[in-house]
C-alpha cells in the first residue's frame, strides 16, 4: 500500500439515527482499515459526513412538522455523537449542507455540462398522489421486469442488479403511502453514463484486488447503462448552476449526485481546517496515492460506476481541478447486508437495533468486535443477540480479556512491575516469536480488508499465549524456581503488550485501557472528538475528527522495559448474562408492536 491513503466512507443519511446494519457496512470496517494504516506509518485521510438533501429528508421533516434543515441538523448531531462513541477516527466528518460543498458540487455539474456529459431531457416524473410531492426513485417499489423480484426500487433491483427507472417497474407503489405514484412530464438533467461504459470496463476488468462479488456486480451494471437523472422536482437541494435554473425553487440537483461529490468537498474542507488549503491535492491528484471507498452493497453502483464516471467526465477539471485530473477509486470495499434475528432491518417496522441503544448498554468494543468477526464482509449475515453474548463471553472475555488479566495478576503477585527474565527457554522464544510474526500476518489481512481473517488470527495468537501460560504454570514455580516464574510472566507480558497493538485497530477502547494498565502514559489508540469548524464557505458547524497531536502506536513489536511499574489489574470486558439475549428480543418485539399500532 502506498504512503498516502485516501479513505472515502459512505455518507449516512440524516433522516434518522443509524442502526448497526449501517455501521457494519460503512463505519467500523473503514475505521479498522484507517487505524491499521496510520499505525503502519501511512498518511491517511478519511472523510465523510451526513447526507442531508433530497426527498427522504423532506418527507421526514413534513412528518415531524419541521423544516428540512432543522431535521438534518438534529440528526447530524445524533449521528456524529453515535460515531464518536463508536470510536470512528475520521479526519473530518462534516455535512452536505455547507457553502463549501455547494461550491464544489456546482463546479462539477457545470464542468460536466460544458463537456457534454450532462443532457437535458423531458421524462415522466413520479409524484405522490396524496401530497403532490416528487418521489425519489428509491421511494418507489415494484416488481422487477427482468427477474420478477417483488421489492425492486425505482433506481435498481437489488436482486439482479439491473438499473431501472420507476416507469419500468410492474405495479409501482410509493413507499410513503403504498399508493401508485402519479407520472407526469418534467424536464430534467441526466448524466450520460453510457458515454463512459468502455472506459469503466477497461478500468474495472484488470482489478485483481477487488472482492469478486463487487467486481462481478459492477461489470454486470455496465452491460445495461442508461443516462441517469441528476435533478429532481424538489425545493431542498443544491441549486442548478445554470442562469435559467439557479434561482428556481422547484428544481434542484438530486441528492445522489451531490453526496458522492462530498468526498472531494470534505477533502477541501479538511485542507482548509489544517491551514494547508492545497493539501487535498496530494491525495486527489497524486498518481501514487491510494483511493479506497467503504460502503454497504446497496451503494456499490454509486462508487464503482457513477462516481468514477463523474470523475472521468470532469477530467482536468474546472475551478477545483485546476488542470489536473482527479484519481479514480483503487478499491471499492463493500459489505453485504446484515439482518437481525432473521429479519431485514426496518425502522418503520421496529426491526432495528440503533447504534445508540447498543452503546448505552454495552461496550463499544464488543459491538466493533462482533461486526468484524461475524459481520457481512463477504456474505449476508444475521445478527442475533445470543451470538453477540456468546462472542463477547467466549472470545473477548474468556480468551483475550482473560489472558491480559491473568498476566497482570501474575505480575502483581511478583511485585507489580515487569519482572526481569532469566535465560529464555524454547517455549518462551517460540511464543514471543509467534506473536511478533503476527504483525506481518495480521497486517497483510488488514491491508487487504480481510477483517475476519485478521481478527481470527489475532484471537488465535491470544489463545496460543493462554496455552503457554497454562502449560508453564508460573504460579507453581514462585517458591521452587522464582527466576523461571519471572521469565514466564515477563514473556507473557511482552506478548500481551504486542497483542494489544494487534487488537488496537479493532478494539481501540480496551487497547488503550490495557496500554495504561501496562504502565504506559501515552496514547496508543486515539479516539475521535466533536468540535466546531468554520468551513471554506464561512459557515461554522459541528464536525467529528480525530484529535490532532495524538500519535497512533507503531505497527511493530514493542518491548516493555524491565522494572516498569504496572497498574492494578482490571477486567477489559464485561461478561454478559445469557438473559441479555431474551431481554433484547423483548425490547425488539415491543418496538415492533408499537410501530404496528
What is the terminal-to-terminal distance?
A: 53 Å
Number of DSSP helices?
A: 17
Q: What is the average per-residue confidence, as pLDDT, rounded to a whole number?
A: 93
The global form is elongated
Quote the beta fraction: 5-15%
User: Strand tally, please?
Assistant: 18
Question: Can you give the helix content as a percent range?
Answer: 40-55%
Strand order in space, largest sheet: 3-2-1-13-14
What is Rg? 26 Å
Helical/strand content category: alpha/beta
Which stretches are low in confidence, meaning pLDDT under 50 for 5 or more residues running? none
What profile does the largest beta sheet have? 5 strands, parallel
How would you describe this structure in keywords?
elongated; three-stranded antiparallel beta sheet; alpha/beta; five-stranded parallel beta sheet; 18 strands
Your description of this structure?
- The chain is 44% helix and 15% strand.
- The protein is of the alpha/beta class and 597 residues long.
- It has a five-stranded parallel beta sheet with strand order 3-2-1-13-14, sandwiched between helices. The protein has a three-stranded antiparallel beta sheet with strand order 4-8-9.
- Helix 13 (426-447) runs parallel beside helix 15.
- The longest helix is centred in the last third of the chain and has 29 residues, at 385-413.
- It is elongated and about 90 Å long.
Amino acid at each position: 500500500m502506498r504512503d498516502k491513503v485516501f479513505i472515502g466512507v459512505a455518507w449516512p443519511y440524516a433522516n434518522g439515527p443509524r442502526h448497526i446494519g449501517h455501521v457494519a457496512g460503512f463505519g467500523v470496517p473503514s475505521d479498522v482499515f484507517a487505524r491499521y494504516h496510520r499505525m503502519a506509518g501511512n498518511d491517511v485521510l478519511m472523510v465523510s459526513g451526513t447526507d442531508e438533501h433530497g426527498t427522504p429528508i423532506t418527507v421526514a421533516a413534513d412528518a415531524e412538522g419541521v423544516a428540512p434543515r432543522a431535521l438534518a441538523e438534529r440528526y447530524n448531531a445524533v449521528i456524529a455523537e453515535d460515531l464518536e462513541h463508536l470510536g470512528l477516527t475520521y479526519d473530518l466528518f462534516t455535512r452536505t449542507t455547507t457553502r463549501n460543498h455547494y461550491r464544489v458540487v456546482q463546479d462539477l455539474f457545470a464542468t460536466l455540462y460544458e463537456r457534454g456529459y450532462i443532457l437535458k431531457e423531458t421524462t415522466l416524473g413520479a409524484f405522490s398522489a396524496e401530497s403532490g410531492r416528487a418521489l425519489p426513485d428509491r421511494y418507489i417499489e415494484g416488481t422487477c421486469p427482468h427477474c420478477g423480484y417483488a421489492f425492486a426500487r425505482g433506481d435498481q433491483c437489488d436482486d439482479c442488479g439491473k438499473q431501472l427507472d420507476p416507469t419500468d417497474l410492474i405495479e409501482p407503489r410509493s413507499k410513503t403511502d403504498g399508493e401508485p405514484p402519479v407520472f407526469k412530464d418534467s424536464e430534467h438533467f441526466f448524466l450520460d453514463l453510457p458515454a463512459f461504459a468502455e472506459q469503466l470496463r477497461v478500468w474495472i476488468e484488470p482489478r485483481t484486488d477487488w472482492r469478486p462479488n463487487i467486481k462481478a456486480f459492477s461489470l454486470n451494471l455496465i452491460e445495461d447503462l442508461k443516462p441517469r437523472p441528476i435533478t429532481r422536482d424538489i425545493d431542498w437541494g443544491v441549486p442548478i448552476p445554470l442562469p435559467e435554473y439557479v434561482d428556481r425553487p422547484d428544481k434542484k440537483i438530486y441528492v445522489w449526485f451531490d453526496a458522492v461529490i462530498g468526498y472531494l468537498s470534505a477533502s477541501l474542507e479538511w485542507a482548509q481546517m489544517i491551514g494547508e488549503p492545497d493539501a487535498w491535492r496530494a491525495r486527489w491528484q497524486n498518481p501514487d496515492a491510494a483511493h479506497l471507498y467503504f460502503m454497504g452493497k446497496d451503494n456499490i453502483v454509486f462508487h464503482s460506476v457513477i462516481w468514477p464516471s463523474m470523475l472521468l467526465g470532469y477530467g482536468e477539471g474546472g475551478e477545483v481541478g485546476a488542470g489536473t485530473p482527479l484519481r479514480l477509486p483503487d478499491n471499492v470495499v463493500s459489505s453485504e447486508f446484515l439482518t437481525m434475528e432473521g429479519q431485514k432491518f426496518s425502522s418503520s417496522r421496529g426491526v432495528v437495533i440503533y447504534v445508540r441503544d447498543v452503546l448505552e448498554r454495552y461496550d463499544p468494543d464488543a459491538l466493533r468486535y462482533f461486526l468484524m468477526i461475524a459481520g457481512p464482509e463477504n456474505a449476508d449475515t444475521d445478527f442475533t443477540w445470543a451470538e453477540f453474548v456468546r462472542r463477547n463471553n467466549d472470545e473477548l472475555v474468556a480468551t483475550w480479556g482473560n489472558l491480559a488479566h491473568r498476566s497482570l495478576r501474575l505480575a502483581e503477585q511478583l511485585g507489580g512491575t515487569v519482572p526481569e527474565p532469566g535465560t529464555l527457554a524454547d517455549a518462551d522464544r517460540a511464543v514471543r516469536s509467534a506473536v511478533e510474526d503476527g504483525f506481518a500476518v495480521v497486517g497483510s489481512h488488514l491491508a487487504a480488508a480481510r477483517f475476519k481473517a485478521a481478527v481470527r488470527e489475532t484471537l488465535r495468537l491470544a489463545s496460543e499465549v493462554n496455552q503457554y501460560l497454562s502449560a508453564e504454570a508460573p504460579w507453581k514455580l514462585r517458591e521452587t524456581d522464582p527466576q523461571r516464574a519471572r521469565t514466564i510472566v515477563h514473556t507473557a507480558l511482552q506478548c500481551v503488550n504486542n497483542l494489544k497493538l494487534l487488537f488496537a485497530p479493532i478494539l481501540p477502547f480496551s487497547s488503550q485501557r490495557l496500554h495504561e494498565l501496562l504502565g504506559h502514559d501515552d496514547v496508543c489508540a486515539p479516539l475521535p472528538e466533536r468540535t466546531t469548524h468554520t468551513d471554506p464557505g464561512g459557515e461554522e458547524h459541528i464536525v467529528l475528527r480525530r484529535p490532532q497531536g495524538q500519535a497512533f502506536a507503531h505497527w511493530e513489536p514493542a518491548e516493555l522495559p524491565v522494572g516498569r511499574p504496572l497498574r492494578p489489574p482490571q477486567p477489559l470486558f464485561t461478561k454478559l448474562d445469557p438473559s441479555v439475549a431474551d431481554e433484547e428480543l423483548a425490547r425488539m418485539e415491543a418496538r415492533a408492536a408499537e410501530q404496528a399500532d
